[in-house]
Amino acid sequence: MSAFFGAYQCQALHHACRYLFMIVRITKALLLLQFIAVLAIAALAETVFLVSGHAYALLSGLAAVLLLRLLITANNFSLAWRYRSETPHQYQVRPWQACELFFGEFKATMLSSSWSMPFHTFSRRIAANPATLPVLLIHGYGCNSGYWHAMSKALNRANITHYAIDLEPVLGGIDEYVPMIHEAMERICRENGGSKTVIVAHSMGGLAARAYLRDHGSSRIAKVVTLGTPHHGTGLARFGVGLNTRQMRWTAGEQEGLPSAWLRKLAESEDESVYRLIVSIYSHHDNIISPQTSSHLDGARNIEFHGIGHVALASHALVQAQVIREIRDVQQAVAASCSRSRHSEHAAPP
Question: I want to staple 118 with a disulfide (CB 3.0 to 4.6 A). Which of 27, 191, 278, 301 is the partner?
Fold first, then answer.
């Protein structure tokens, strides 16, 4: 009996931890802390620095918090610089483009962490007259389905039915996310007549998609589009927390870097035919995946961008357009295959 209650308490504690550490709750808590910080700095500005007027004091507090967020983004770029891969000449940016890159990433992180992830999570958005196969969106480390808010708008405009999941536990192993993806795939197949699905995954989500393919095969997958996925790891993972960050580590070596044991084992377990399903989209100026060429996956189709940060990938108009083209190309290939099949049946002798 004591063993039973012990197991029950462990399970209850596990569920409580998952509840407390949901990204939507974490982001809302961080917003509250930032709001308190603004008020505290405003009070300090009035009493110590004798700033006249509540409005100016509040602006001082807001400016201080924004500056801190700006410094966090700058630190990410600084860390990425340590592990960077060589940027091809045609993808190098000029100073004004570097400014656009930095502030574009800062804007994306602010909108994502302070607006879309706390307040715009979703599980599905059904098109009235779907133009393509359904899509499953899989977010990356430290995010939730709200990360896809901007991409979801673009998919809605393109009349594409899409689903999204929240990967939990936040700090768990990547293999723990496979059952969630499988459950989502089963649901999509039930609700869409058993048709195949296109996966669009950001960052760590692309590794979770590969783990799903390893365990469940590709019978229900038409294509996997990864955005800024560390297929060979990232040096910045050493600064993260959780088992999943250890699984995504890239360690610099004398000649070339070494992916984590988990990444090496994943690659060893995969059939090369799986890579033909994958389209890897990445930026040579990614500030989280570094070296940036870690997103290049041999055997897959790799599409390179430049001047776009990591968080900004899913909200950038050029990337959204490319993702929609990839989804539509699958639909055209499926239609062409069906047409050839019907033609073969009609051409067959009696």
Answer: 27
Q: How far apart are CA 296 and CA 282, in angstroms?
A: 8
* Residue keyed to tokens 């930095």: 102
Least confident range from 11-20, 40-49, 197-206: namely 11-20
Non-local (6+) Cβ contacts of 345 within 8 A are: none
Cα atoms in the 13 Å half-sphere on the side-chain side of 334: 17
* 216 Cα distance to chain centroid: 21
Are 62 and 77 within 8 A, CB to CB?
Answer: no
What pLDDT score does 335 carry? 64
Residue 125, H or E segment? strand 124-125
Query: What SS3 class is residue 12?
Result: helix
* Residue showing tokens 């989280």: 288
User: Tell me, what DSSP letter sits at residue 316?
Assistant: -
- CA dist., res. 164 & res. 202, Å (int): 12
Distance between CA atoms of residues 290 and 309, nearest Å: 11
Write out pLDDT tens, residues 137-146: 999 999 999 9
Residue 312 pLDDT > 70:
yes
List all residues 6 or more positions away from 335 whose beta carbon is below 8 Å from its beta carbon. none
Rounded to an integer, what distance in angstroms lies between the CA atom of residue 51 and that of residue 41? Answer: 11
Owner of token pair 């050493």: 238
Q: Is the pLDDT of residue 52 over 90?
A: no
Give helix then strand counts, H and E, for the chain.
12, 9
Residue the block writes with tokens 């189709």: 301
Number of neighbouring beta carbons within 10 Å of residue 250: 24
User: Burial level of 76, CB count in 10 A (0-12/13-18/19+)?
Assistant: buried
Compute how many other C-beta atoms are within 10 angstroms of the C-beta atom of residue 208. Answer: 26
In this structure, the number of other CB atoms found within 10 A of the CB of residue 90 comes to 8
Closest CA to 77 of 313, 292, 305: 292
